[in-house]
Amino acid sequence: MTEAALPLLIEPEEFAAQRDGVASLLLVDVSSPDAYRAGHIPGAIHLPPGVLQHGAPPAPGRIPEQARLDEIFSYLGLTPDTHVVAYDDEGGGWAGRLLWTLDAIGHRNYSYLNGGIHAWRAAGLPEDTEITQPDSQPVSVKLDTGPIAEVDDILPRLGDSNFAIWDARSADEHNGLRSGSARAGHIPGAINIDWLELIDRGNAMRLVNLEQLKDRLAGLGLTPDKDIITHCQTHHRSSLTWLAMKILGYPSVKGYHGSWGEWGNRDDLPVA
Fold first, then answer.
1. Bond from prior residue into 147 cis (ω within 30 degrees of 0)
2. Looking at the predicted structure, is the pLDDT value of residue 231 above 60?
3. Residues 152, 216: contact at Cβ < 8 Å?
4. Is the model's pLDDT at 256 over the cut of 80?
5. Which band of pLDDT confidence, cut at 50, 70 and 90, is reported for residue 108?
6. Is 132 left (phi over 0), alpha (psi -120 to 50) or beta?
7. What residues have CB less than 8 Å from 152, skipping those under 6 apart?
8. Distance CA 6, CA 15 (A)
9. DSSP structural state of residue 169
10. Cα gap 63→234, rounded to integer Å
């Protein structure tokens, strides 16, 4: 049998038809525990979303430390040949965070199941309630800092015409009307598109039309020729914006894992 090559963005029907032809497939459900127990795609391994973040204030969204990453991917049994397909129950934020984390450990064999469990159900595909255990094995990962943005990647480039920031928080957060940090507002020059605007609730939580999204981003100055950094409060919501740009072929995209949790709690950083 010829091994199927899965695209970065895959529809439920496509995945259902091709999954048996994928060697070393790892299907990961990054939904809430209750949602996973209520029904998931057969063979999916559950990964609690919170383990993908460091969890410690003031910037709980930072990537976990090396030892914790080793534990996570040892539990999942990740190998260099593993093709990971990720999905969730919220339209792609947590699935995107898992794929960004894979990118950050240099693992590029992955796909996002468009719409997650909602699109799977809408397609009338089978579900399971039995907990699937992973084929765990020791894994030692190595961070690739390329996809990870830090303050030092942002501060010197504020005002640079070849650089842009996508703030994926709500308009109220961006405009300083509410904040999860000590200070309210946004990084100077950041462009605000709420991550929820990427999710088509009328189409089973799939991504919105990608060509229209690309045109919208270009109209706001978020173009593929720029180095782009995306963030929210904890780089959960902005993981979906990172993923959308990867799907659209943007070559230089980083996720700022400190996000507003870090920036908004530091008195030495500028706020607009």
1. no
2. yes
3. no
4. yes
5. very high
6. beta
7. none
8. 8
9. S
10. 10
Q: What strand order describes the sheet that includes 253-256?
A: 148-149, 253-256, 227-231, 163-167, 191-192
Q: N- to C-terminal Cα distance for the chain?
A: 57
Report the alpha-carbon angle 17-88-198, nearest 5. Answer: 95
Contact 181, 58 (CB under 8 A): yes
CA max distance for the chain: 59
Number of residues written out for the chain: 272
Rg of the chain over Cα atoms, rounded to whole angstroms, equals 18
Domains of the chain: 9-122 (3.40.250.10), 148-263 (3.40.250.10)
Q: What is the mean pLDDT of residues 139-147?
A: 96
Question: Beta partners for 110?
Answer: 84
How many CA atoms, within 13 angstroms, populate the side-chain half-sphere of residue 41? 30
Q: What is the pLDDT of residue 134?
A: 97
Locate 26 and state its tokens. Answer: 């790892």
Structure tokens at 262: 């870090």
Burial of 150 (0-12, 13-18, 19+ CB in 10 A): middle
CB 237 within 8 A of CB 257: no
Active site residues: 232
Task: Report pTM.
Answer: 0.97
